[in-house]
Amino acid sequence: MRGEVLPRLERLGLYLYAADHGVTAEGISLYPKEVTRQMVANFEAGGAAVNVLARAHDVVVNVVDAGVGEGTKNFAREAAMSEAECAAQIEAGREDARQAIRKFDMVGVGEMGIGNTTSAAALLAALCGRSGAEVAGRGTGLDASGVKHKADVIDAALELHQLQGKSAFEVLRSVGGFEIARMSGMLMEAGKLRLPVMLDGFITGSAALVAMKMEPQAREVMFFSHRSAERGHGAMLEELDGDPILELGMRLGEGSGAVLGMHMVRCAMKMYSEMASFEDAQVSRSE
Question: Do the beta carbons of residue 139 and residue 23 sit within 8 Å?
């Protein structure tokens, strides 16, 4: 990706995108959307799980407010975004990538947004021809009846918007989120710039799907940190032809998996560039 024989992988950054989702009005989450703002404050104060992991692995955390408070419209009733809003978020994400390549050797993407597993699941269903029951998961802790309701909301939204055969941009603006649109822009521009990107879990995977559909070269710079416990992530990885680095049953989000994934890649690059060969170490071979 970087075109270097011994690439440096020391400067690691995490872009943590946050936004609110109007679809929370449908009761698809155990938590109110105010939690998004509260968690963003925790990220900025350095007290979240991802901050702890980032400090342990020398990763710089960049919190990006893509629409906290404002939020998208309720996609169960109308399109989540206008064309102009969606395009603006994609362009903002492209600018994030242009800034990132000046500062980092590799970046991770993570997210925060109450309701965003519903949006990500709707994107997967619409882009890959799946039903709500196949893609809807527990999110922040729904029980079986809550998951069924979430799946029903997704199915109804897909019926409302009639997205079969529509472009990835149209699908994104209909059922996506502001943070997902901005991550999509970041990934598309990273593909052009040859900037390696470590994806976190299910929500970042939905942005990757959109980016790959819109600009296939984006897929060439993607790494997949882990297979989330969220239902639908396995199917998403199959669509992306993604091979996850870790299998730990993680479901936290925030970019926690992306930080661990970047650490593993950095370890691999250090082995590649610093480990002695048998010849260097004068290891005897049998005659």
Answer: no
Sheet holding 106-112, edge to edge: 59-67, 12-19, 106-112, 197-199, 222-224
Would you state the structure tokens that stand for residue 159, as one six-digit string?
A: 């019926």
Q: How far is the C-alpha of 135 from the C-alpha of 144, rounded, in Å?
A: 14
What residue ranges do the domains of the chain occupy? 12-274
Question: 77 — phi, psi (to 5°)?
Answer: -120, -30
Q: What are the residue ranges in the chain where pLDDT is below 70?
A: 287
Q: Which of 30, 182, 172 is nearest to 91 (CA)?
A: 182
- So which residues are the catalytic ones? 254
Q: Which of 87, 109, 95 is nearest to 169 (CA)?
A: 87
- For residues 1-25, b (16+ Cβ closer than 10 Å) or e, as one string? eeeeeeeebeebbbbbbbbbbbbbe
pLDDT digits (tens, 9 = 90+) for 218-250: 999 999 999 999 999 999 999 999 999 999 989
pTM: 0.95
Nearest to 230 by CA among 212, 211, 208, 257: 257
Residue 63 main-chain phi, psi, to 5 deg: -90, 125
Q: What is the pLDDT of residue 152?
A: 97
Spell out the CATH class of 12-274: alpha beta
257 vs 222: CA distance, rounded Å: 14
For residues 253-265, b (16+ Cβ closer than 10 Å) or e, as one string?
bbbbbbbbbbbbb
Q: For residue 162, what pLDDT is reported? A: 96
Encode 76-142 in three state secondary structure. CCCCCCCHHHHHHHHHHHHHHHHHHHHHCCEEEEEEECCCHHHHHHHHHHHHHCCCHHHHCCCCCCC
Q: Please, which residues bridge with residue 198 across strands?
A: 108, 223
Q: How many whole angstroms separate alpha carbon 164 and alpha carbon 96?
A: 31
